[in-house]
Amino acid sequence: MTRALPAAAPGQADLLQQALVHFDQSEPLSARELATTVAEGDDDALRAQALALLVRCHLVLDEHVEVLALARDALDLCWRIGDRASEAIVHATVARSLLFTCDPVSAMEEIMTAIEVAEASGDLTARMLSTGTAGTIYYYLEQYHHCIEFCERAAEMARILGDEITNGAMIDTMACANMCLAEEARAEGDEDRAQAISGIAQDQSREAITIARRRGHRRHEVIALGNLAESLSFSGRTDEALELLSGWQLDPARESQSIITHLLDTHGSVCLASGRYDEAIGHLRAAMAAAESKNSKMVSAEHLADAYERNGDLRGALDTYKLFHALSKEVASEAAKRSGSIAVVRMETAQAKAAAEEERARVTALQHANQELLRQSLEDPLTGLANRRHLDEVMAAGLAGHAIILVDVDHFKRVNDEYSHLVGDRVLRLLAGLLRSACRAEDTVVRFGGEEFAVLLSGSDLANAMATAERLRSEVAAHFWGEVVPDLTVTVSIGLALGDESIDPAVVLGHADERLYAAKRAGRNRVHGPTETP
């Protein structure tokens, strides 16, 4: 699984790409080494992605306190630079860590945050990882239908991205969920449904094996193989299951201790279910010896105690159960200590998040304030139209192919003197509305100053510009101004110039102004354009 990287120093980007490849191939130590180098660089965009990957490496290495501590730094950077995709990936990783440290409620809260942030980011990789993590959490919460639903979504995203490794992992997780549903069906006495669901799980595990083998992903292949063996054993096909397990050649030089333990424990469990107790004991003892953690050793000890008991070796069962009990206490004690450390880091992370959100809100408020100031600087407060400054900015791009119309209210001083400035202001607002409604969306209507307005007609020749100007004049004259005060009439004079008359917008505007005053001298309530004589 890889993400598109931003343009940066090729060396750093290449290192991060290599780190992602190592991680996808279940080589977290190599991935961590490369990602650490990138995280110590000076490119914030790459550093954020490298820190997100380092958090994932700590998770795979079962270093949960480190996951939470580094996640705090990663999120701080992501919030600062606005990298929502990396932020979502960190949240999803933290959710897994919280789940594995026995805090499912916080894990669910965290994954919902991850999904929300991933959706907002629009990054398909972040969405895939967050959705897939949700599927895993639902699996451990024994909500298997939800697990399958989320894993199906993640698998589809993986297929779109061409990410076969994640696709295969999601398919195998669905196989595990289906096996749990099969076991539930058997417990309810519905053997036909149990066998049908088990068959679906077997097909999914086979598909996962094929994908892992094609991609050379040995870890995923052996996990899917173990799951297939368990589902075959569930269906009464123990010989096939054992043949499948026996056919896998363990290679200590290539297999991690966790994979070796997993395969040996699965082999022992299948033998145990089929009544081959001596073989089960041999595999489970080997699993305990190979266990890379107290937790793995504890799981195999529980299975081994069961095997001894079924084989009639009560002394062996008792001794192994005592070991299981001692390991359980140690695991619980370590988990409690770790939970205390995690709680402190979680609190610090929450405080950092609150501070980041406060800063983000402050920046957003400033941006809105700046946008409002910009809007106000380009808008006439009385009419809501654009102002002269806005027109100057538009004209600076050139007027070729455009036309400019200047509109002035006839005898406007008389309106103010006879009726008041409040009436005059209302006239100007109504006139602004008439001009705006009579023009196209691509035209620019501005209050030029006082009782004068300007209309920049986009893509207009002389005939169209003159027709528009005449229409504006006639609509103003025909409007019922008596709604403002009885017997009030309002007319306008208009001057028009074409943008092609000069390469200098100021010259074009000057021509329109000259023609406006020519229209006023000629008796007002008329249009003068390039063909008119002043």
UniProtKB/TrEMBL annotation:
Organism domain of life: Bacteria
Residue ranges of domain GGDEF in the record: 400-532
Keywords, in A-Z order: Nucleotidyltransferase, Transferase
GO molecular function, one term: diguanylate cyclase activity
Pfam family for this entry, one: GGDEF
PROSITE patterns hit by this protein: GGDEF
EC number, UniProt record: 2.7.7.65
The name this protein goes by in its record: Diguanylate cyclase
Organism this protein belongs to: Actinoplanes sichuanensis
Species lineage: Bacteria, Bacillati, Actinomycetota, Actinomycetes, Micromonosporales
